């Protein structure tokens, strides 16, 4: 079976889907399943080739991961402004207590975040990482979040980390 090209599928390729199975074949022919922290570097340096099985409705297809940049962006190994809506810069950020918050003195509070720098939050995990680094904020990435660029994005954060 001739593998298809993941690059040809572009951003539609389900790089981070739970049903996507990765297979890494090293130079010496060793086959390993799944990926680890070194997979990207080994594939990039040509020490291995990365394949993935994309299970379809009727049959599964084998793909060669021939766009490693896209793979890295999907897995958050390199910053992706398009996917996350977030520039790789110091955000100009404002926050207010969300109107729904009934316990404003709790250890975690729901806040509404406005980004005056023009970014829009499409990926909470990336935003949480940037805010931890830039301001020491502790944003809960497991809770609900959402919103819009006009009303701001709501999320849960540890109150003390916000200085409140
Ligand atoms: Zn920004």
Characterize this entry briefly.
This protein is of the alpha+beta class. The protein is built from five helices and nine strands, in the order E-H-E-E-H-E-E-H-H-E-E-H-E-E. The strands form two sheets. It has a five-stranded mixed sheet with strand order 1-5-4-2-3.
Structural class: alpha+beta
Shape label: elongated
Termini distance?
59 Å
Main sheet properties: 5 strands, mixed
Helix content, binned percent: 10-25%
How do the strands line up in the largest sheet? Answer: 1-5-4-2-3
SSE series: EHEEHEEHHEEHEE
Number of structural units classed as domains: 2
Number of helices: 5
What percentage of amino acids are in beta strands? 25-35%
Name the ligand types: zinc ion
Number of beta-strand segments: 9
Low-confidence runs: none
CA-atom Rg in angstroms: 20 Å
Q: What does the average pLDDT come to?
A: 92
Furnish the topology, listing elements before pairings.
Layout: E1 4-5, H1 6-9, E2 21-26, E3 31-33, H2 39-44, E4 48-55, E5 60-64, H3 68-74, H4 81-84, E6 93-97, E7 108-115, H5 124-135, E8 146-148, E9 152-158
Parallel strand pairs: 1-5
Antiparallel strand pairs: 2-3, 2-4, 4-5, 6-7, 7-9, 8-9
The chain binds zinc ion.
């Amino acid at each position: 079976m001739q593998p298809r090209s993941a690059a040809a599928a572009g951003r539609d390729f389900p790089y981070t889907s739970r049903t996507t199975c990765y297979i890494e074949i090293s130079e010496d022919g060793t086959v390993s399943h799944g990926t680890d922290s070194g997979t990207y570097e080994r594939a990039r340096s040509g020490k291995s080739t990365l394949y993935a099985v994309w299970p379809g409705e009727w049959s599964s297809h084998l793909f060669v991961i021939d766009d490693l940049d896209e793979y890295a962006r999907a897995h958050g190994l390199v910053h992706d402004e398009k996917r996350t809506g977030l520039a790789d810069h110091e955000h100009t950020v404002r926050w207010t207590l969300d109107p729904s918050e009934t316990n404003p003195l709790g250890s975690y509070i729901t806040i509404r975040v406005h980004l005056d720098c023009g970014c829009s939050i499409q990926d909470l995990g990336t935003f949480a990482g940037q805010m931890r680094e830039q301001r020491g904020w502790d944003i809960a990435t497991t809770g609900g979040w959402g919103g819009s660029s006009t009303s701001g994005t709501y999320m849960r954060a540890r109150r003390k980390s916000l200085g409140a």
